[in-house]
Amino acid sequence: MRVDDFDFDLPEELIALRPVNPKHSARQLVVNAPNSNGFIDQKVWEFPDFLTSKDLIVFNDTKVIPSYLFATRGEMVTEVNLHKRLSPVSWLAFAKKTKRLKIEDQLSFGDGRLSATIQEKHDGGEILLNFDVKAGDLESVLAEIGMMPLPPYIASKRDVDERDRDDYQTMFAAREGAVAAPTASLHFTPELMEKISAKGIKTAKVTLHVGAGTFLPVKVEDTNDHKMHAEWGNVSDDVAELINGTHKNGGRVVAIGTTVLRILESASDGQGKIHPFSGDTSIFITPGYRFRCVNMLMTNFHLPKSTLFMLVCAFAGTETMKSAYDYAVRQGYRFYSYGDSSLLFQGN
Known about the structure:
- There is one protein chain.
- The protein is of the alpha/beta class.
- The protein has 2 domains: 3-64 and 170-345, QueA-like (3-Layer(aba) Sandwich), CATH 3.40.1780; 68-146, QueA-like (Thrombin, subunit H, Beta Barrel).
- It is built from 8 helices and 17 strands.
- The strands form 3 sheets. Strands 2-1-17-16-14-3-12-13-15 form a 9-stranded mixed beta sheet, with helices on one face.
- β9 (114-121) and β10 form a beta hairpin.
- The chain is globular, with a radius of gyration of 20 Å.
């Protein structure tokens, strides 16, 4: 498929720079709801009204680390965004000015509080860094000197600040390793979780450490030529059993975010059964994909020509989602990580 087929016009003023307060008061566009004509406008607070006690909501419990760093090499200053941990002291990262960087160069961070050696250089501005710290110490140093890795469409419009340390972290964050937030979960609050619990709706958590590659533009003309960056994920035995039991009992699996959908589909076999999973996934979902596990998807509004917009087109139907995004633009929905939400039922 041509990447241009997934393009659309988005006014700059619809890019959200801050979340709403309270977060569950964000708007939500419901698409493909049973027995409905067209789209339904509601608030995220009303999301559980579409569910029953047979259904299962699945969240991503990854935790974003402050992985955006300023680096120096002599007089040169550059910017580094860690995106995938390979060991306790080694990370793949996207860096600026990589043409001026060489293998074995030493980079300094945080006024000399942290240093790293460039071990490898890859295409697309990617480098492999080996940090000069003891295993287990890196995260505490990053917490002090790093900044939250806001997406470029926000960071290019305002400075990252202390408020983002809370705003860009979900209430489910437990397992450190992400360098981008699973943004659909940012809408959830303790009050909304109490409402979900009161309806008897079950919940579960999986892990997918979201990488900075999720924001990379698709630079090829055909989707067949695009390579996804791998991300590490985990589905436990207990969660796999709970999901399989949900389907067996006639319930629906509701993925909160594309990250949850991607790890669940990676852990599913051809018959739709979920198996325990631990490892990398680089699954790339485009129209024509047959979904094996997820029945409903809650997700924010995504970039034109992005892999995530391709995914929602695959889930709910390309023409349906193009119409939905056109409607969302006309209705002034807020887009991207700090923006509003959509609730998608599978298309035919």
